[in-house]
Amino acid sequence: MGRLAGIIIAVLIYGAISAYLGWNLKKWIGYFRPFRWPVVFWIVFFVIAFSPFFTQVSWLSPLAIVGNYWMFFFEYGLILCVIVNIIIFITPLKNVKIMGSIVVGLFVILFGVGTYNAYSPVTRHLEISIDKSGEPLRLVMASDFHLGILSNKGHLQRFVDLANKAKPDAILLVGDIVDDDPIWFVEEGMDEVMKQLHATYGVYGVLGNHEYYGGKIPSFIEEMKGANVQILMDETILVGDRLYLTGQEDATNKERKPIASLKPTDEEYPWIVMNHTPYDLELPQEAGVDLHLSGHTHLGQLWPNNLITDRIFEMDYGYMKKGNMHTLVSSGFGFWGPPMRIGSRSELWIVDINFAGEGNQKND
């Protein structure tokens, strides 16, 4: 009963905020053309406002697309409406038509910038040194593709082109490869694009929280296998007699193995761990991990959400050396919800590993 009450309260709050946005929009539009059927406006508006709840229903895909874009409007519409309402209330600037037009103009600019940042990925470079013997290694690492309706086949092709251009020894996909359900991966034939990836020692992936949300992990693993991607689930393998690679289950799985139990017995080769969510970096450091790779945070994806991720995680983005362990957290190649990024960028990382020397970071 308590959970049901919480859901009802949350829906009422969400509905009230949505109504506030609708009221501002309706008032601004009314200065250009009076409404003849306001009931129709509110019906359409609330259908759009609640459309995000239908994003995983395949036959409602047009509504799902609207729902993803609505999430962008909800966040930035709320920020801008509150600011403008305060300005109108406490300053002589009372012209709603002009102030509303400024808000709409700013929103269009944010929309354009956000779309560009999401669909124009960049390649970032990291060079590190590990105190072990071996020949230099080059890895391509990316996370959070959220392959689905909007992070689509074309966007995956961008990753394939950039990854192959780097000529890596291995390609590592660090969780949230699909957006909950692999249905879109299958229906859009994305496996044919994924098969184009080329790396000396293969392509490897790990589960993220969204693979668990989708509840279709066996079919997801099978689809990845068909696309030549080996998914590691709480296991450590030797890759090409060059490195030990661990795929740790996501923290969503409360029964996942502790990282120390996945440590290879032979310490001759570097030990690289893919762990989608960077919650606790102390444990892999203490276990002796050489390179720890994560995603999940999206760097907030939309400013100012990064202020939240910065508080939640010890490191929510970029490179850090923690003791002898190198740690890298990516903002992701794709996006969740709206296909926009403000204050972050879709990206992949090229990680060059040298041995017995000092490392440095490079960004393009």
What does this protein structure show overall?
This protein has about 375 residues and is an alpha/beta fold. The protein contains 11 helices and 13 strands. The strands form 2 sheets. Strands 5-4-3-2-12-1-13 form a 7-stranded mixed sheet. A 6-stranded mixed sheet has the order 6-7-8-9-11-10. A hairpin with a 3-residue loop joins strand 6 (about 235-240) and strand 7 (about 245). The relative contact order is 0.15.
Would you kindly provide a brief summary of this structure?
The protein has 364 residues and is of the alpha/beta class.
Query: Which spans of ≥5 residues are poorly predicted at pLDDT below 50?
Result: 357-364
Oligomer category: single chain
Number of helices: 11
The ordered string of helix (H) and strand (E) elements is HHHHEEHEHHEHHEEEEHEHEEEE
What best-fitting shape do the alpha-carbon axes yield?
A: elongated
Rg, rounded, reads 23 Å
Query: What average pLDDT do the residues reach?
Result: 92
How is this fold's topology laid out?
Blueprint: H1 2-30, H2 38-49, H3 61-90, H4 96-119, E1 122-130, E2 137-142, H5 153-165, E3 170-174, H6 183-187, H7 190-194, E4 203-206, H8 209-214, H9 217-226, E5 229-231, E6 235-239, E7 243-247, E8 271-274, H10 282-287, E9 291-294, H11 306-312, E10 318-322, E11 325-329, E12 347-355, E13 360-363
Parallel strand pairs: 1-12, 2-3, 3-4, 4-5, 7-8, 8-9, 9-11
Antiparallel strand pairs: 1-13, 2-12, 6-7, 10-11
